[in-house]
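Saturday, quiet lab. Running sequence design on the structure tokens for the scaffold JK sent over.
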């Protein structure tokens, strides 16, 4: 194992095409014997050791992988801060096709994690299963999501709580029953969310690149299947992005008919400043992703410090309270909900660091 000396990526960093200046540590790992290529990014550890799951994905380029890990890692800093956890923000990506995943690759990656000696604690994300985390754990103890915690379920619960808070803010006293909800992506979190939404007796619309997943939701909950290209156009009350990030941009936002955006995906907005303001101008209430999807992080955080389900789920249910504060402040201060969420996170970091506050939201 050694740090990768890739001239393309290093040049991108050197000339400011990709900025790592707001990160404490960005490390590239390469193990040619098992075809491991990984990037670990630690954004901020003011509140505690960096926590962030590992994503395995066949990125088109190392530049794309680096951009993703940088965006995801600072999002974890803000997620932990808004959830009031003593944890910092980090993230990791493994550049690989899921079919090429092997025990040897995962164990080598575990050694990468272990080399950081606890500065970074990881768990499961896209294309990383609980079984994979257990493979990683054979080489390091700095992993979570392998005992009592259930991060996917916890994330879905938090998203549902966030939806209820959004509905109550826009339409005081209204219940979820009868509302139309579009869930984009019914993978690990999305399918659990559909189960909970069905219990709330909403009208479900679903899309997924894997049609069999959507068909399962139709069979179980009577969901209407919509093609991935048309899911943005249907007339619903809530649009819930639960797949990969970057799907909300200016062209997509103009197509949306929903009043609320509340989903589990990370980095939902392609451009944070312009897209959040565009949503506001259209009268769409946006639940900042790193606030509403914090349930999984909360659950594995409590696993790390000594799991108590009651405490974990009490904290997850606080997501609705945090969102209500964000909505109220955004309306009062005439700012976007994302600007207020960023402000609240920075206030938390400032209080911990006891230095003049600065905006750590770099991209």
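Result came back. Writing it out in full:
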């Amino acid at each position: 194992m050694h740090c990768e000396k890739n001239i393309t990526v290093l040049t991108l960093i050197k000339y400011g095409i990709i900025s790592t200046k707001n990160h404490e540590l960005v490390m590239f790992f390469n193990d040619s014997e098992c075809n491991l290529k990984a990037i670990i990014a630690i954004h901020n550890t003011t509140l505690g050791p960096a926590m962030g799951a590992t994503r395995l994905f066949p990125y088109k380029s190392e530049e794309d992988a680096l951009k993703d890990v940088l965006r995801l890692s600072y999002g974890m800093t803000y997620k932990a801060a808004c959830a009031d956890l003593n944890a910092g923000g980090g993230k990791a990506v493994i550049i690989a096709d899921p079919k090429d995943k092997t025990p040897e690759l995962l164990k080598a990656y575990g050694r990468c994690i272990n080399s950081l000696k606890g500065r970074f604690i990881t768990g499961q994300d896209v294309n990383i299963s609980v079984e994979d985390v257990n493979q990683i754990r054979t080489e390091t103890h700095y992993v979570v999501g392998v005992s009592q915690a259930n991060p996917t379920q916890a994330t879905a619960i938090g998203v549902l709580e966030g939806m209820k808070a959004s509905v109550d803010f826009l339409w005081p006293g209204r219940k979820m029953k009868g509302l139309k909800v579009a869930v984009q992506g019914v993978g690990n979190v999305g399918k659990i969310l559909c189960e909970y939404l069905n219990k709330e007796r909403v009208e479900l619309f679903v899309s997924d690149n894997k049609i069999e997943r959507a068909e399962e939701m139709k069979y179980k909950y009577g969901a209407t299947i919509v093609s991935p290209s048309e899911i943005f156009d249907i007339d619903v009350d809530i649009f819930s992005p639960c797949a990969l990030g970057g799907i909300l941009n200016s062209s997509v936002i103009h197509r949306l008919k929903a009043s609320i955006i509340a989903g589990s995906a990370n980095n939902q907005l392609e451009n944070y400043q312009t897209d959040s303001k565009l949503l506001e101008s259209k009268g769409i209430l946006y639940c900042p992703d790193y606030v509403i999807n914090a349930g999984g992080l909360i659950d594995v955080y409590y696993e790390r410090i000594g799991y108590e389900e009651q405490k974990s789920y009490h904290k997850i249910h606080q997501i609705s309270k945090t969102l209500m504060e964000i909505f109220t402040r955004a309306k009062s201060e005439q700012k976007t909900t994302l600007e207020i969420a960023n402000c609240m996170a920075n206030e938390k970091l400032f209080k911990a660091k006891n230095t003049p506050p600065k905006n750590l939201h770099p991209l």
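Notes for JK: The two ends are 30 Å apart (CA to CA). The longest helix spans residues 309-333. Ask whether to fix the surface positions before the next round.
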